[in-house]
TrEMBL record:
<keyword id="KW-0540">Nuclease</keyword>
<dbReference type="Pfam" id="PF03725">
    <property type="entry name" value="RNase_PH_C"/>
</dbReference>
<dbReference type="GO" id="GO:0010467">
    <property type="term" value="P:gene expression"/>
</dbReference>
<dbReference type="GO" id="GO:0003723">
    <property type="term" value="F:RNA binding"/>
</dbReference>
<keyword id="KW-0963">Cytoplasm</keyword>
<dbReference type="InterPro" id="IPR050080">
    <property type="entry name" value="RNase_PH"/>
</dbReference>
<dbReference type="GO" id="GO:0000177">
    <property type="term" value="C:cytoplasmic exosome (RNase complex)"/>
</dbReference>
<dbReference type="Pfam" id="PF01138">
    <property type="entry name" value="RNase_PH"/>
</dbReference>
<protein>
    <recommendedName>
        <fullName>Exosome complex component Rrp41</fullName>
        <ecNumber>3.1.13.-</ecNumber>
    </recommendedName>
</protein>
<comment type="subunit">
    <text>Component of the archaeal exosome complex. Forms a hexameric ring-like arrangement composed of 3 Rrp41-Rrp42 heterodimers. The hexameric ring associates with a trimer of Rrp4 and/or Csl4 subunits.</text>
</comment>
<keyword id="KW-0378">Hydrolase</keyword>
<dbReference type="GO" id="GO:0000175">
    <property type="term" value="F:3'-5'-RNA exonuclease activity"/>
</dbReference>
<dbReference type="GO" id="GO:0016075">
    <property type="term" value="P:rRNA catabolic process"/>
</dbReference>
<dbReference type="InterPro" id="IPR020568">
    <property type="entry name" value="Ribosomal_Su5_D2-typ_SF"/>
</dbReference>
<feature type="domain" description="Exoribonuclease phosphorolytic">
    <location>
        <begin position="22"/>
        <end position="151"/>
    </location>
</feature>
<dbReference type="InterPro" id="IPR015847">
    <property type="entry name" value="ExoRNase_PH_dom2"/>
</dbReference>
<keyword id="KW-0269">Exonuclease</keyword>
Length: 242
């Protein structure tokens, strides 16, 4: 995190031309893979992620099965070609941690008790990383799980806010994440107004934190509407990008 890069002008215009409260351009598509029970593709700015859901299916080996509910397994993985410098395909500590964080963000929305002794796998493949990958991964995973027919309390929608050049801004890109002062990814069940993930890297005052949560809610409202549009497009039979 450094101060030397001018990330935002006095008038509040960011390097990529966005205002402080604007998301990057977002595209979502549901039902992009044939060998899965659910799948989704998301682009958020230059971040590109593919999510595949398999299951619910019988848990193997049998001893991992839980009598009263399905096990949710999530794997967050960055492709070797997803970053500027080749990333080792072996799972890093960061990927192991993000897999867990993403699982915990999704789990509260799912009625896992409807599928005892089974396992549901969620594969999150980051094809191109430009910050916000955990958030975009959660947003896409949630619509892939919906396509798989897993009953849900609500979708889960996520986006980060952060602080750059002293201003609280929505949906950081990689330059803002790298050179900014703070990064705070948040996931919510929007209709239930419940937060399922909140992390903070860096420092924010209490007022900035409140400002951040309000900005996130604005972004999540827009993303939630795109998620529902993508699901409608899938189930109306029209495979159109939204
Ligand atoms: P998130 O992608 O959820 O914002 P981080 O804050 O950990 O997660 O990472 C921010 C960004 O930094 C990533 O989206 C990616 O663009 C970049 N990044 C993360 N890990 C690596 C890596 N191993 N090599 C190159 N870039 C990386």
């Amino acid at each position: 995190m450094s101060e030397s890069v001018v990330l935002i002008t006095q008038d509040g215009v960011r390097l990529d031309g966005r205002r402080i409260d604007e998301l990057r351009p977002v595209k979502m598509q549901v039902g992009v893979l044939k060998n899965c029970s659910g799948s989704a593709y998301i682009e958020q700015g230059k971040t590109k992620i593919l999510v595949a859901v398999q299951g619910p299916r019988e848990a193997h080996p049998k001893h991992i099965a839980l009598p009263g509910r399905a096990i949710l397994r999530t794997r967050y993985h960055m492709a070797p070609f997803s970053t500027d410098e080749r990333k080792s395909p072996a799972p890093s500590r960061r990927e192991v941690e993000l897999s867990k964080v993403i699982r915990e963000a999704l789990e509260p929305a799912l009625f896992l008790e409807e599928y005892p002794k089974t396992v549901i796998d969620v594969f999150i493949e980051v094809l191109q990383a430009d910050a916000g990958t955990r958030s975009a991964g959660i947003t896409a995973a949630s619509i892939a799980l919906a396509e798989a027919g897993i009953p849900m309390r609500d979708l889960v929608t996520a986006v980060a806010v952060g602080k750059v050049g002293g201003k609280v801004v929505l949906d950081l890109n990689e330059a803002e994440d790298e050179h900014g002062e703070a990064d705070m990814p948040i996931a919510m069940m929007p209709s239930l107004n419940k937060i399922t993930l909140l992390q903070l890297n860096g420092r924010l005052t209490r007022q900035e934190l409140e400002e951040g949560v309000n900005l996130v809610k604005k972004g999540i409202k827009e993303l939630y509407s795109l998620q529902k549009q993508a699901l409608r497009a899938r189930f109306s039979g029209a495979q159109v990008e939204v």
